[in-house]
Amino acid sequence: MASINPYLGFDYQCGPAFDFYKSVFGGEFAMKMKFNETPKDAQAPGQDSAEEGEKIMHVALPIGKGTVLMGSDRPKAYGPGTMGDAFNVSIAAESKVEADKLFNGLSAGGKVTVPLADTFWGAYFGMFTDKFGVQWMVNFDKNTSK
Q1: Buried b (16+ CB within 10 A) or exposed e, 48-64
Q2: Beta carbons within 10 angstroms of residue 118's beta carbon
Q3: pTM, two decimal places
Q4: CA 67, 110, 127, 24 torsion: positive or negative?
Q5: Can you count the helices (H) and strands (E) in the chain?
């Protein structure tokens, strides 16, 4: 079966964002490579500059059971990126305690839009935008708890 892994794009905040995500989720990066670590013939125009060379070409953080959160910085040659407001990264927590930990950790310094609370559909659910502009949903489905 195919799998889906979120891939986040940043305008020069990928490194700090993923260091933050790692501090909340734990684990180790499967890969973290800067543009200046790639072959010269594989770089977009301008990526060999000192500033762009230090930015993240690709980072991968394994989370949970088979999910990998990935991301990169957007090279200046591609023009400015826009953080979308039409998608969220959704986390399925395994317990209410885990939901609280992830929600509180990831929302630190961000903006809570829906506080974590019990819902009419039988879940413990909340939403926020983190301090890097990424929108998240945290959900613990109480109907499937062990």
Answers
A1: eeeebbebbbbbbbbbe
A2: 12
A3: 0.86
A4: positive
A5: 3, 8
Q: Please report, as a single letter, which amino acid is at residue 103.
A: F
For residue 127 the two structure tokens come to 């939403």
Q: Report the C-alpha gap between 128 and 121 in whole angstroms.
A: 19
pLDDT for 46-74, tens place per residue?
A: 566 777 888 999 999 999 888 999 999 98
**In which residue are the tokens 């998240």 written?**
136
How far, in Å, CA of 132 to CA of 124, rounded?
24
Task: Let me know if 40 is exposed, middle or buried by CB neighbors in 10 A (0-12, 13-18, 19+).
Answer: exposed
The answer to whether the beta carbons of residues 13 and 83 sit under 8 Å apart is: no
Reported as a pLDDT band with limits 50, 70 and 90, residue 131 is very high
Q: Characterise 115 by phi-psi region: left (phi > 0), alpha (psi -120 to 50), beta (else).
A: beta
Q: What is the DSSP letter of 140?
A: E
